[in-house]
Amino acid sequence: MLPSTARAADPPDVHLEGDHIRIDDHIHFAHDSDEILETSNQLLDHIAEFLQHHDEITALHLVGHTDATGTAEYNRELSERRAAAVRRALVQRGVTQPIDSRGAGQSERLCQEDTDDCHRRNRRVEFRVDLAG
Q1: What CATH number did the domain enclosing 126 receive?
Q2: Is the Cβ–Cβ distance between 88 and 27 less than 8 Å?
Q3: Cβ atoms of 103 and 77 closer than 8 Å
Q4: Residue 61 covered by a domain
Q5: Which of the four, 38, 74, 78, 95, has the lowest number of CB atoms within 10 Å?
């Protein structure tokens, strides 16, 4: 049993910032795979709910990224598969906006250092949107 001071974790912050959806968490994948880890289900639920309540978002563009481990070609393919996995997960959760996905591989890294933290930051899927009007 949890102590009386314990509470459920706050849901991740998901908000619109210009033409990007900003998320204070990351979608996590199995190592060297496009399998979305179960720990990311709550985040995907919140993203889908956010999209369902924002009719001004007319289309969603997912861009997958990797760290620099492996070849550039392999990383591009892996990033494409990961972005496509997120697209499928959102559609399964009822998102109706058109969604396209592509992979950028390691070409748009957030940081260049060869550290675990830097590699984690570079492994991500970005959410860009088209807005009505």
Answers
A1: 3.30.1330.60
A2: no
A3: yes
A4: yes
A5: 38
